[in-house]
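Aim 2, interim progress: modelling of the iron/sulfur cluster-bound target.
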Amino acid sequence: MTWIERIYIWNILKGMMITLRHLFKRKATINFPEQKRSFSSVFRGLHVLNRDEEGRERCTACGLCAVACPAEAITMEAAERLPGEEQLYREEKYAAKYEINMLRCIFCGLCEEACPKDAIYLSQTFAPSNYSRKGFIYKKDDMLIPNPLTEPETYKKALGERPAKMIGNQ
Ligand code: SF4
Ligand code: SF4
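Predicted structure of the complex, ligand included:
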């Protein structure tokens, strides 16, 4: 070790040069939540349980999403639609209970692909942080999209940037 290395000045200068160089570089971080990063068009976030254009729940509680889920994150209970409930549920059977454990979910999107009714899709938002595990068990009401007939504005907002080709099909 030379005397100049022994007094560490050279190493300190080298470290300061690196700091200085990074001062003028474009920052890799953003000021979240004031600033938000735009997601890729194929980003898969929080699940939304979809309604049809008449505001009826699309899910028929067939269970295909739960079967397709590799993380076994979905649980549901089916119920039969009663006379007079036709404006609430599109099919004769509906999900009386529908839950997704977001701590298990790997956001693979297989539930969306498996669904024959366009009843579930992964949106462009993500689950907010929570202090308890229970808070990550999302229930039907947490995921159900607002009714397009009674709350058109919140419905549109919840729909987000979902590709137009997917909206209102089937
Ligand atoms: S995104 Fe994947 S892991 Fe998450 S609930 Fe759907 S199928 Fe399961
Ligand atoms: S979300 Fe789709 S696949 Fe899952 S139970 Fe409902 S209709 Fe079936």
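The mean pLDDT is 90. The longest strand covers residues 93-101.
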